[in-house]
Write the structure tokens for this entry.
Amino acid sequence: MAENVKTENKEIDVQKLMEQYDSESRIRRPLGIMAIIISIIAISFSAFQFYTGGFGLLLALKQRAFHLAFTLCLAFLIYPGSKKSFDKNKEKIPFLDIILAILGAGVCYYLVVFYDAMVIRSGLPSTLDLIMGGLAIILVLEATRRIIGSALPIVVTVFLLYSYFGQIMPGFFAHRGYSLERIIEHLYSGTEGIFGIPLGVSASFVFLFILFGAVLNKTGMGKFFIDVAMAVAGHTTGGPAKVAVIASGFMGSINGSSVANTVTTGSFTIPLMKSIGYRKDFAGAVEAAASTGGQILPPVMGAAAFVMAEFLGIPYIRIAAAAVIPAVIYYIAVMTMVHLEACKHGLKGLPKEQLPKLGKVVKARGHLIIPIIGLVYLLVRGYTPLFSAFWAIVMSLAISMVKSETRLNLKKLGEAFEDGAKSALGVAAACACAGMVVGAVTLTGLGLKIANGLVMLGGGNLMLTLFFTMIASILLGMGLPTTAKYIILSIMAAPALVDLGVNPLAAHLFILYFGVIADLTPPVAVAAYAGAGISGGNSMKTGFIAVRLAVAGFMIPFLFALDPGLLFIDSTIGHTLLLIVTALAGVLALGAAAGGYLFDHTRIYERVILIISALTLLTPGLLTDSVGIALLAVVILVQKMRISKKAELA
């Protein structure tokens, strides 16, 4: 919902910023009867998901079909065909889009109505089956283009063309080729394409986690996170930047959207950072780097983590547990970088009298944290994500009633359900679209060919293969949402890493990390650009600074790919602790080299030593770790001596 934040005597239009930098936020706002109809559909979508989540899902194909029917219907009603038409009229829904919305629901409902008949004639689709399937493919591609942009539909189209023209492909890419009828049936009539595992994950627990976040947001959880961060870190050196890191981490862990997190939290924290002297480019970069990390921070990571659990066939809590240490290291690294920047420029915190008191904040809204604690408890106890998310929502509704300022009345509850449904559209569309890529890969056997090609390209060298996978992840991540990028690379690149000895969970997390980092990587750094939009800084400069701040995000995946002990896999407590210490030291060394400051301004030779230190700490092994720690200690000692000498001369 549109919200204005007033800072520095300037009003920041949060909704306008969201529309500018996040295509998923570029939605129509019709008036009158159409507004009521859209609200009813969206609330019904959430109610359907909430009810089936708590009282039993339908058969897999039927559950996914209903889920996609709601998604396509809402997508065509609220997302315009182009930015130009959106800018021209945000309130009018063209008649064609109403027809497309009806068709979108119809092609999905067809599967539900004729489910038994289609099962009986499996392998022998009727003409009507093929017509409906062809329409479904086109409508999913168009809906996805409207919601998240054209990159993913283009990728899917390339895979579909590859499936059809396989016989004319060069070299090891060649295959016998498949007829149009076979491709449509494969993608539409079963659970191998559009209605595959990715959409299945979206249609079950991912939607409920998104709804959980929407309900918490309506209770005022966002304000609670910001007030806690202000109370804890606002008075420290460079306080507002640390507030941005802490608050964005909290928000991101239940939000899952880099841009949305950057804009909502940044509209408050970025002006604060600028007010104490942070450069505007740096202020925007801090918020972007902190907000992006939310997708890798448990307990509620981005949707890709839930898809990962299904692909690997392991409980989600195992992924969340494995991701804890790397995520914490990432945030410690960002916090360290902003602290060093503050020390470098002599930036102070905010006066304590201007800050909220932690005790009062906790007393006013502390009860809102109970549903999150309950969610973690249920997951740790071994309950399914679906069960846990359902009861977390129930707890949120119950806990909100404790105090009048957090209470959800019927109107707010309806708004939460509507917001939850609209927030889920991007994930659902991406999953349906990416499911077609999975279908094309399983149909043609392309995944095995790509995996073998990556191993060959890397010459069987693990570090080279990891490097090529990192580049592919970042490049794909620039144009695709994290979930879609993860799905595509998990079926093509992850097998190559596993073949070279990387633990399967570590291989999948490696891909996820670099897909997330792509939100900060120029030239398409959407989170950084959103931060620059608030700070008034230069977009490219903000992007490059954000990459420097997120340097841990580039280093940590290599660490756990080479030694999965950082993920609690095949490791003793002592070994994991050693890995944590060396990782933190390596991140500190690399950050100090990049930022040009440790305890004092770094000189050229010190930067070189720090880079060598970071690289040796990146390579697992007692000898390399010892060398890395020793080199870092040398720089610290040299700088301390220099500072002491300056003090004596003064």
User: Anything to note?
Assistant: Residues 62 and 115 are 8 Å apart (CA to CA). The longest strand covers residues 4-7. The two ends are 57 Å apart (CA to CA).
